[in-house]
Amino acid sequence: MTKSLIKFGFVASLAVVSAASVAQTNVHGTTNNSNSRFTSVSGSISGASANGRTVKWGRSSLEFTGQSITANGNQPFKIGQLQWSNGSYRDVNGHLDMNLQVGLDFGSRGGGLTTLNLKYDESKSGQDMFTLPGSASFGSASIDGHMYNVLLAGYAHAGGNGKLNGLTWTNKEGGCDTICLFGKLEPCAVPEPASMAALGLGIAAILRRRRSK
């Protein structure tokens, strides 16, 4: 597998929030469940259909495979993989929108569902392409007494005939390629004590003004 992981940055407000400590405890979960499946496929390519974790169009297919997860706050964790078999199709240009629902289950600690929108473009040149989503939230999880958002961290090329460049995944006609999806834990923002005190003083001042009227 390619060592590099394509990451996405998330902007956080620093004015009135501070982050909880990074989770050290390993948390176990899974995306290998009935909630992980393609919910729809639509577009200009006729005959495309979604069935469970697989979308098929012509002689091509895209399949999602979930897996068991071990997560902590120190590094991205693998949440599954996509395998693309790019069989030959009619000599036309076409487009498909595929919605992949991924269910991430951490048991009593939390988790949730997210939908990843994958945009596929069929090209006459034979170099077909997926555009991958750049961000997504899988809900939240409670670890060591703190709450964490579970976010999409990025993708990594796992081998085959295609290429992954940022959010663009290409594959030649007749090729088979696989990429891995990664998640990460991000501490939920919590109010700083000074900010909470200032908020309390502001509310008190408003109440005093209302009483004096």
Task: Write up what this structure looks like.
The chain is mainly beta. It has one domain. Helix content is 9%, strand content 55%. The chain is built from one helix and 18 strands. Strand 6 and strand 7 form a beta hairpin. Mean pLDDT is 83; it is low at 8-20.
Overall domain count:
1
Query: What is the residue-mean pLDDT, rounded to a whole number?
Result: 83
Distance between the termini: 70 Å
Major beta sheet, specifics? 14 strands, antiparallel
β-strand number: 18
The tally of helices reads 1
Q: Which bin fits the share of residues in helices?
A: under 10%
What is the overall shape? elongated
**Helix-strand pattern, N to C?**
EEEEEEEEEEEEEEEEEEH
Strand content: over 45%
Uncertain spans: 8-20
Computed over alpha carbons, the radius of gyration is: 22 Å
Helix/strand-derived category reads mainly beta
What keywords describe this structure?
18 strands; elongated; 213 residues; 14-stranded antiparallel β-sheet
Question: Could you give a quick summary of the protein structure above?
Answer:
The protein is mainly beta and 213 residues long. It has one helix spanning 193-212, and strands at 6-7, 17-19, 27-30, 37-43, 49-51, 54-57, 60-65, 68-71, 77-85, 94-105, 110-122, 127-131, 137-143, 146-160, 163-165, 168-172, 176-187, 189-191. It has one domain (23-212).
Topology:
Elements (H helix, E strand, L loop, with lengths): L5 E2 L9 E3 L7 E4 L6 E7 L5 E3 L2 E4 L2 E6 L2 E4 L5 E9 L8 E12 L4 E13 L4 E5 L5 E7 L2 E15 L2 E3 L2 E5 L3 E12 L1 E3 L1 H20 L1
Antiparallel strand pairs: 1-14, 2-18, 3-8, 4-10, 5-6, 6-7, 7-9, 9-17, 10-11, 11-12, 11-13, 12-16, 13-14, 14-17, 15-16
